[in-house]
């Protein structure tokens, strides 16, 4: 069985839904995870904000516009009246549900229920179109019946297949469509896997069914070796390892959800990044082995806060770092990058929600200095390949910039640099020139 995931832009209008359906029809045995059509989740978020402010006029206006959008998609997708009626009926049903939900007072934590309508309606329209044109036996699977998080907010791979077979029986050969992104929390309430979570749904399904491969269909040809928003002449990365892809996703590569790699790597299932608008493009393959040792790509992450703790109490002391980490554990704030010396610790976080509380707690250990608006550059590949002297090339490229932190992490796959956010664009361009253009890389030839 193969897993296919289509993102919001790949399902963004009637023509793209038709293209996705054509791709689905080429697979005899697959499960398809759908994102909401592009723009729908943002509209639902705005409706939720109006609901929170009790702004009935804006709720009605936005909801009417969203319903009209879906109905126009129906008119473009379906020809026969019976199919048009079925599609419009399902839209009417879910918008009536939505209206009833919006009539009740706003409650914190309930917004995710409203957001789920984007994936639910999109997946049902795709199912109807596939059924009308390619496969009358295609089946819709409700993600809320098989994907549930535990108290730590993590899904169970084995539980996914158990719940699917409990509700639908063993999945024989054929085509199945479900929703990405949405799930239940440990209390049985509707929740989600955060932005881009449809990637995560796809790889969880792949691991649950030991799939032959996972295809993530987007609107770009694959992973680029640098951020094309800031750098010209970026190159398509044809192959990359699970570890390298995970680093890139976490440190800013927008094409992948940060959590999506580990389920596939656990079962050694290759992930193919493909372009719905250019299906013949080779795309990018993420797998366990990639061959030659080279730098593969660079990503960047904005909005970083850097925290420095200076204390003479660290000298020849043990247990100091444990106490520092306990502060971040208390405030449920992950650390991205860390470097230490005998008398200081420097680290970064990307979530400043509890920065004041963290700073106050750390001050009992020594002097605390905070620097906001930093950026992390992540260079992945075999950065420790001595024969290529990549680390030296990186330092040469970044000589004009203010490097605040540098870390090789715990493997050969990752070199992270922290510098002021305003210098990110220039640093990315300098690294592109030094690592990929000045010295041609055989990975991209």
Characterization of the model:
The chain has helices spanning 14-25, 40-52, 56-77, 81-103, 111-133, 157-168, 197-208, 242-250, 261-267, 320-330, 355-362, 390-397, 424-437, and strands at 2-6, 30-34, 139-140, 175-179, 182-184, 190-192, 213-218, 239-241, 271-275, 284-287, 295-310, 338-340, 344-349, 367-381, 405-407, 414-420. It folds into two domains: 2-289, Carbamate kinase (3-Layer(aba) Sandwich); 296-440, VC0802-like (2-Layer Sandwich), CATH 3.30.2130.10. The strands form three sheets. Strands 3-4-2-1-7-9-10-8 form an eight-stranded mixed β-sheet, sandwiched between helices. It starts with a strand and ends in an 8-residue tail after the last helix. With 445 residues, it is an alpha/beta fold. Helix 1 (14-25) links the parallel strand 1 (2-6) and strand 2 (30-34). The mean pLDDT is 91. Helix 2 runs antiparallel to helix 5. The radius of gyration is 24 Å and the shape is globular.
Summarize the structure.
By secondary structure, this protein is α/β, with parallel strands linked by helices.
The percent range for strand residues is 15-25%
3D shape: globular
Oligomer: single chain
What's the CATH H-level homologous superfamily of the largest domain? Answer: Acetylglutamate kinase-like
| CATH architecture type of the largest domain | 3-Layer(aba) Sandwich
Largest sheet: 8 strands, mixed
Q: Please list the strands of the largest sheet in the order they lie side by side.
A: 3-4-2-1-7-9-10-8
Helix content: 25-40%
How many separate helices?
Answer: 13
- End-to-end Cα distance: 33 Å
């Amino acid at each position: 069985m193969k897993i296919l995931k289509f993102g919001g832009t790949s399902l963004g209008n009637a023509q793209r839904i038709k293209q996705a359906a054509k791709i689905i029809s080429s697979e005899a045995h697959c499960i398809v995870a759908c994102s909401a059509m592009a723009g729908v989740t943002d509209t639902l978020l705005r409706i939720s904000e109006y609901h929170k402010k009790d702004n009935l006029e804006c709720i009605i206006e936005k909801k009417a516009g969203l319903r009209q959008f879906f109905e126009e998609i129906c008119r473009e997708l379906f020809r026969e009246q019976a199919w048009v009626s079925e599609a419009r009926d399902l839209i009417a049903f879910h918008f009536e549900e939505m209206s009833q939900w919006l009539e009740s007072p706003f409650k914190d934590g309930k917004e995710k229920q409203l957001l789920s309508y984007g994936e639910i309606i999109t997946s049902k329209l795709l199912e109807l179109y596939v059924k009308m044109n390619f496969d009358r036996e295609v089946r819709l699977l409700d993600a809320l019946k098989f994907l549930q998080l535990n108290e730590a907010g993590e899904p169970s791979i084995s539980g996914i297949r158990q719940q699917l077979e409990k509700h639908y029986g063993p999945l024989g050969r054929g085509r199945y469509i479900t929703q990405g992104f949405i799930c239940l929390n440990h209390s049985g309430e509707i929740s989600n896997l955060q932005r881009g979570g449809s990637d995560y749904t796809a790889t969880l399904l792949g691991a649950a069914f030991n799939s032959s491969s996972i295809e993530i269909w987007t609107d770009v040809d694959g992973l680029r070796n640098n951020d094309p928003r800031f750098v010209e002449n970026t190159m398509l990365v044809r192959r990359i390892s699970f570890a390298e892809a995970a680093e890139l996703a976490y440190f800013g590569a927008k094409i992948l959800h940060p959590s999506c790699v580990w389920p596939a790597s656990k079962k050694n299932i290759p992930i193919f990044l493909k372009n719905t608008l250019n299906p013949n493009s080779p795309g990018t393959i993420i797998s366990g082995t990639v061959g030659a040792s080279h730098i593969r790509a660079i990503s960047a992450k904005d909005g970083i806060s850097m925290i420095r703790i200076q204390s003479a109490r660290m000298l020849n002391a043990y247990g100091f770092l444990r106490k520092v980490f306990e502060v971040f554990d208390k405030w449920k704030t992950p650390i991205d990058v860390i470097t230490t010396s005998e008398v200081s610790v420097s680290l970064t976080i990307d979530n400043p929600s509890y920065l004041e509380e963290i700073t106050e707690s750390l001050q009992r250990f020594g002097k605390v200095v905070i620097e906001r608006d930093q950026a992390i550059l992540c260079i992945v590949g075999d950065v420790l390949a001595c024969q290529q002297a990549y680390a030296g090339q990186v330092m040469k490229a970044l000589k004009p910039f203010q490097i605040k932190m540098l870390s090789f992490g715990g493997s050969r796959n990752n070199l992270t640099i922290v510098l002021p956010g305003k210098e990110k664009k220039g640093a990315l361009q300098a690294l592109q020139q030094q690592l990929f253009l000045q010295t041609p890389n055989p990975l991209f030839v």
